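Honest question from a wet-lab person: if I give you the sequences of every part of a complex, can you actually get the arrangement of the whole thing, not just the pieces? Trying it with mine:
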Amino acid sequence: MEIIEKVRSLKEYRGKLIGSVGFVPTMGYLHEGHMSLVRRARAENLSVFVSIFVNPTQFGPSEDFASYPRDAERDLAMLQKEKVNVVFMPTAEEIYPDGCNSWVEVSGITDRLEGKARPGHFKGVTTVVAKLFNIVEPDKAYFGQKDAQQLAVIRKMVNDLNMNLEIIPVPTAREPDGLAMSSRNVRLNPEERKAAVVLSQALNLARGQWESGQRDASQMRDAMSALIKKEPLASIDYVSVADTQTLAELDMINRTALVSLAVKIGKTRLIDNIVLGE
Amino acid sequence: MEIIEKVRSLKEYRGKLIGSVGFVPTMGYLHEGHMSLVRRARAENLSVFVSIFVNPTQFGPSEDFASYPRDAERDLAMLQKEKVNVVFMPTAEEIYPDGCNSWVEVSGITDRLEGKARPGHFKGVTTVVAKLFNIVEPDKAYFGQKDAQQLAVIRKMVNDLNMNLEIIPVPTAREPDGLAMSSRNVRLNPEERKAAVVLSQALNLARGQWESGQRDASQMRDAMSALIKKEPLASIDYVSVADTQTLAELDMINRTALVSLAVKIGKTRLIDNIVLGE
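Yes, you can. This is the full assembly:
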């Protein structure tokens, strides 16, 4: 497994490869969710590239960039086991050298949900992902369904800007009790960890309602919110039932719908989602 | 010579090629300036692609998108003579389908000169050029020095976003009396055409001053402005002596300087520039 820190070295290495390249961009602190992306990439490509880069431009000034969990040694051991070919681990200065001031931005769908809660977040995401795509030149890139809006935004960017790769969505990996895997779960104390199951419980409630014929999105949001409010450690950021393409809130669930939520458990902000009617 | 209108067809054609591809993006109504780019691309690459696309997103609402001169038949005849391999002539709907809303933007240097005079102009330029680069995947792309700020902005975009191609600048082509070639020159009536020589005269004045040791940028700007004001058909938009990298106005010309100007001759806005100290 090659560990590469420089853009130039990565491009040189990439230039010599033949055959398909699968790419999994990550912020490290890998868990089973990431590994499911890596294994999918491994199964579908001759070479697999993984990037580990905690991207400063996608964190707001009051967000958790400095305290985002990091453990490069553990990450590398996990990736080696999966026979990853290249790990790209650049510094922030390597990705954003002095004076770097060009941006890729998807308008419209980035105004909602995570984009509304975290202004500037997606501009940072699309910029770094576009840069990584140019550096790695993958045939396929793998993204978790857990970050549903990120997946929608990146697909839109690739489509709108005519980029030459395929985006492969991979289902959310979950703990046995239903909690979606996330690098941020490590911050939950034992009591919060128990409380965090309320996110997937709310989504299960929504799925149950939908299967019983509920089509009123407002009633569905209310039921989910009521369930979450019973958990004293939880505070709702948003509960959404939205069009999967535009992410606009629905009145009636008369098409495929993204049910998503952001909830703080103690000080840790968690997100999760399901798609109804796929 | 292949004439291709669809993104998908262009990508299919491109996918089968081996060897280097040179690319000349244009808005059509070709003149000797464009042809010097095409000939340079022809000399340096196995395949040459030219795009003809009057890009709506780089024109402001009060600008001349609708009246921008067009003559596809003449353009194609000129390109055929130069043994161009592919001409890409998409419609606006092909490049910007319904809902397309992703943008590439270079901040900072786009606030000055043309960017200041034409808000949003460079956002349209960088977006369409990034899209064309993704569609054509050239090894080298050729841009005229006449649009000096555009050249600087595109170089910065390529560098900042780690794009995989080389940008080749080509000197400005001029009429015998010094007027920089431009598709917009066709709009000048005979009297305005004569008056338009004042742009290159002002640049020559600046070069002469510089060669005589003038290093005060403000005095240089004043002298150029005074010369232009003697021409009754001319009205100055800006006269600039700026750093070639940042495009910030200089006080003392103590490094390589871009001397540039935008002047309206009658209703036609013309630009031109030279670089001092290269």
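Two things worth pointing out. Chain B has a mean pLDDT of 97. The longest strand of chain B covers residues 234-243.
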